Amino acid sequence: MNSRKPSIHFKIYHILFICCVLAAPGLAFAQDFKFANGRKAQTMGFDLKKSLIIIPIYINDKGPFDFILDTGVNPMIITDTTLKESLKVPYPRAIKISGYGNFNGIDAFLGATSVKIGDSEAENIPTVFLKDDILPISGFVGKKIYGLIGYNFFNSFVVKVDYTNRMLRFASHPKKIKLKGEKIPLELIENKPYVKLKVEQEGLATQTLKALVDCGASHAISLEALNGKPFPKPAFTMEANLGNGLTGSIKGRIGRVASLSLGKFVFRDIISSYPEYNIDSLKNKDRNANLGAEILSRFNTIYDYQNRYMYIKKNEKFNRPFEHDMSGIELYAESGPPSKTFINKIEPQSPADLVGLMVGDEIISINFKKVDDYSLDDIGAIFKAKSGYSVIVEVWRDKAFIIKLLKLKKRI
Fold this sequence. Notes:
This protein is mainly β. Helix content is 8%, strand content 46%. The chain is built from seven helices and 31 strands. It has helices spanning 83-86, 137-141, 151-154, 279-283, 293-296, 351-354, 376-383, and strands at residues 34-35, 41-45, 47-49, 52-59, 62-69, 76-78, 93-97, 106-117, 120-130, 147-149, 158-162, 167-171, 182-185, 187-189, 192-201, 204-213, 221-223, 225-226, 229-230, 238-245, 248-262, 265-275, 289-291, 299-304, 309-314, 329-334, 340-346, 362-366, 369-370, 390-397, 400-407. It has a six-stranded mixed β-barrel with strand order 4-5-10-6-9-8. Strands 2-12-11-24-25-13 form a six-stranded antiparallel β-sheet, with no helix packed on it. It has a six-stranded mixed β-barrel with strand order 15-16-23-17-22-21. The longest helix is centred in the C-terminal third of the chain and has 8 residues, at 376-383. Residues 1-25 have low confidence and may be disordered.
């Protein structure tokens, strides 16, 4: 019926579990972006999909290529397997990338590229090219994505992320950005930022946790380890495939925590992920949790890696309730042309399952409006709008149009 990869469920979740990239003799790497024209700061717009920041970049004077800007990334990752040859990277070296979990590593290539973001440029940025297309990011966000970039950019500037206006301001001189908001200390470990936060959960005393700040992860909070063991779960959780990362499919459960405190700000009744890990992988963990974009996007944030601080100021999304999908449908989009949106997974006993929707169904319309008129974010908002809300879904299956009346149900 279609040429998509079957049964791929993808959320940008722990997308960079990279612990190390093997050293490559003979490759000289630079670290910093600099403005080439004497300017000190620049403001540019960004696209926001699934609470993820998408910016255009140029690589080796080619592009633009849309990349996810991700505090959890080091080094830059190119996920589009066609770019290695077209960018003409000299002598990329074969490497293995390792990560948390029961995982032996994946094949990749390490090279150096020249990268431009706005009027800033960095030469010889360490760049990892994935050998195989294991991260179908484009289908998840509904837009062609070529890779992820993080540490080298954030470490070069004071960076302000204005989620409200979808604007990015970056400055080589701190006075070019007013440092407003709650001041949160950062700890950089292996070039990734960590914060302390407090979590209160049913059946568990309030815990002070060390969390990776990961604006390239779409979840709110992932609770991973406590005292060398898997993080305790609340009484009620729901089994879930939490997504795909470099380590492959990430299984676990989702539940809710009573409160989460970051600085003076407190969130309540937050959806949390509880990924599965084996005992051996937990021994090497240097964190308890992963703080993702579903929380970070509720602030306008300034990152100051050089001085080890971030500044957070709540925005209009701050009080939005934390809701999980109420349909049981997960979607995958093909950019086309023509663009198509398919049901990629259906949760057992969910509203979608009970009315007979199936994996592989192509969504044609929702509430009698063509699916092309919606973004994936729009559809996601409809599917978690309100328990009891009715949604009319039209699909194409086996050369026939089928209409289903879907009644949403809050499941977690």
